[in-house]
Design goal:
Mean pLDDT: 97
Distance between the termini: 9 Å
Strand content: 5-15%
Shape: globular
Strand order of the largest sheet: 1-2-3-4-5-6-7-8
Largest sheet: 8 strands, parallel
Structural class: alpha/beta
Helix content: 25-40%
Order of helices and strands: EHEHEHEHEHEHEHEHH
Low-confidence stretches: none
Number of helices: 9
Radius of gyration: 17 Å
Number of domains: 1
CATH topology: TIM Barrel
CATH class: Alpha Beta
CATH superfamily: Metal-dependent hydrolases
């Protein structure tokens, strides 16, 4: 099974989606399953995992409704309020949706200390009693805090979105690599090879810009903890869908068949328990 492990869907709302400002006009549109399906098919994917972009349970239900209508949507990573006093009841209610695989919070937009805040952390720990996974969305400067977060969650399946967003444009590498090495010591931590083009020089990136980051992830985590993701439609800020997929597919083509299969779908299938 070949799986694109990271996309988004939305019906654009300028108030709700205020993060999509006028510098991102290409994203000020609706992006729905019928827009993505031909892209998946042309790249040989069997399905995808859709990830939240709005901090609301309404969006989680919106994504689940789309997943019920489209078989190629194999899984949904939604949002839930991990600080809610009735979190147990909310998790129990969502457990009835087989395509809901996990949750994410947009931590990159939060102040320092958010990940290790006791109330938030205790909420995430409650996933241990469920089948749900957790996607970690951070930027490079948050890696030290991310390590502390991960240390507190040794038995929950975790995945780092977008390689923890290194500053590829400015060739930031050493500090990022040190942080990723520490994260790789935790066997429950996985990495999505996604979101790279938007962290590079969006107008002038080259394939070689991403090589040290991809090589490092492979060396530290191994292919069985890596998964490809397009980050469509956000990737359109810097590249077309086929270009983004091509970057990782070309990298994986140089590996063994076992490693290729892991990165291109097997890891995601196992991590998210996809049918």
């Amino acid at each position: 099974m070949k799986i694109d492990a990271h996309q988004h869907f939305w019906q654009f709302d300028p108030v709700r989606d205020a993060w999509i400002d006028d510098t991102m006009q290409v994203l000020q549109n609706d992006f729905m399953p019928n827009d993505l399906k031909p892209l998946l098919e042309s790249s040989g994917f069997d399905g995808c995992v859709i990830v939240q972009a709005d901090q609301s349970e309404d969006e989680t239900r919106f994504l689940l409704n789309l997943a019920d209508q489209h078989d190629f949507i194999k899984g949904v990573v939604g949002w839930i309020d991990f600080t809610a006093p009735d979190l147990d009841e909310r998790l129990d209610a969502f457990s009835n949706h087989p395509k809901l695989k996990g949750f994410r919070h947009i931590i990159q937009a939060e102040p320092d200390g958010f990940m290790t805040n006791k109330r938030f952390l205790e909420g995430v720990k409650k996933l241990l009693k469920t089948r749900f996974t957790y996607d970690i969305l951070v930027v490079e400067r948050q890696l030290e805090e991310c390590i502390k977060f991960v240390q507190s969650l040794p038995d929950i399946n975790l995945v780092i979105d977008h390689l923890a967003k290194p500053d590829i444009k400015n060739k930031s590498f050493d500090d990022w690599a040190v942080g990723m090495k520490k994260l790789a010591e935790f066997p429950n931590v996985h990495v999505k090879l996604s979101g790279m083009v938007t962290e590079a020089d969006r107008e002038n990136w080259k394939k070689v810009d991403f090589t040290p980051y991809l090589d490092t992830c492979l060396e530290l985590f191994g292919a069985d903890r890596l998964m490809i993701g397009s980050d469509w439609p956000v990737c359109l800020l810097a590249a077309e869908y086929e270009e983004v997929i091509g970057l990782v597919e070309e990298f994986a083509d140089g590996l063994s068949q076992t490693e290729y299969d892991a990165i291109m779908g097997k890891t995601a299938k196992k991590f998210y328990n996809l049918d």
